[in-house]
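Exercise: predict the fold of this chain.
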Amino acid sequence: MGSTYRGRNESYTVVICKHRHATPVTFFHTGPTFLRNWVILPCVTISKRMAGAMTGILASTLLTVPLLATPAHAQTLAEDRPSVAPNVFFPAVARRAHDLKTPGKRPGTTIKAGCGTKVVAAHPGTAYVTNSPKSGPNLVTVVTSAGRTTTYYGFMKSTSVTNGQIVQAGQEIGRVGRAGSAAPSFCSLYFAVKNNFGKDANPTRWLARLVGKPLNTTSLFGNWGFVVASMNTLGASHTRYGGGYPTYDVRTPGQINLLNSYAVDVVGLQEFQRVQRDQFMAVSAGTFGIYPDDTTLNNPLDPFMVDNYAPTENSIIWRNSTMELVSTDYIRVPYFEGWRNMPVVLLRDRATGRTAYFINVHNPASGVGYGDQAMHRAQAIAIERQKIIDLRATGRPVFLTGDFNDRAPAFCGITSQMLAISPDSIPSMSCAMPKSNGIDWVFAAGGARFTRYARDWKPKNMKLTDHPIVWTRVHLSE
């Protein structure tokens, strides 16, 4: 027997078997902060009355957890709650913006705000601009995937997106007005939602539940996406004589387990010294493909190997079951007293057949015995930016991962002129630096957006490395 229980944006499916010879069953926990979670439970012999009681008790216990987890979040009005991409945003950006909670004959609600107030996409997706007699000539619809979460923005006096444009959560799509026959006499925004089943959802409740949290779907552009990450593995030479971290042979198996726990599909690795690479590939036993590969490393005449010291230290790995290698390339960047070749690969997502480029870099740090490296880092950023521009000319999305040893100079150098974004930033002509940042980054240029993101210090806390892992669930739109 099975029952599904829902609490806010979490749902649980509980299955109880009627006889002891039944196969094991699965308890599913799905929610916006989980990529995928499951626990296999053994079946037990149980009476119908006891089954009902146990199911009720279990569900009651489970549903209590998310209710108690974030009381402050739940008590803050959606319009007053801060958010960071790719999480859900309140659509009108103004201190006095206020949801009047008016869903009734029409499925949407009216959000009162001053004329000209910025309107932003509540979530990532594809924007469409249409003319509606009731909602005005600037009705914007943002679609995640066909038949799934879709939001509508009406009464606007202007739009700042074009038909078919992909948008980031929090990206401006228009300005508040009072256009349309259904608009009230005051300036306002009409906001409506269709849920993951294509049904009208109460927009007030939807905003109250999700603003500041991940969208309650990981379907975007018609696909479930894949996980891209960047991780500095802490070179073996740095822990040879202690220093507060275990040696590489202890840390490497833990790093593999960590990457598998995140279900990563593509990872840019830095400080990946040869002994670490050898152990990693042996322990992971064919799970991942890698570039530079063995053939490249064993051929001193390969262009990647020529005049390139420590060639394994910057590598790209991909999960063979989900990604397929199409081609390889590299770029040369200045590094301390010489140059290093940084890997570039073109990969195909097996689930969709869509392809994207991936670049992984490590720019030189200052204060480690080689003086101030700011000039070399600036030169490296310029080279990396130009490579993105060159690869974007093919029409394919481009991802850049790495330890840049810079915050604003790296972010602004890569993202300005709307060339690229990080998962937690908004497209900008200048430099829309996210509040939470570091020296490790994942950037995307072109047809790609995100549904999950974290700068996670778990690997440092576990003494696996001295850096966070930066990971994101990304979706290709083309």
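Check your answer against the key: DSSP finds nine helices and 27 strands in the chain.
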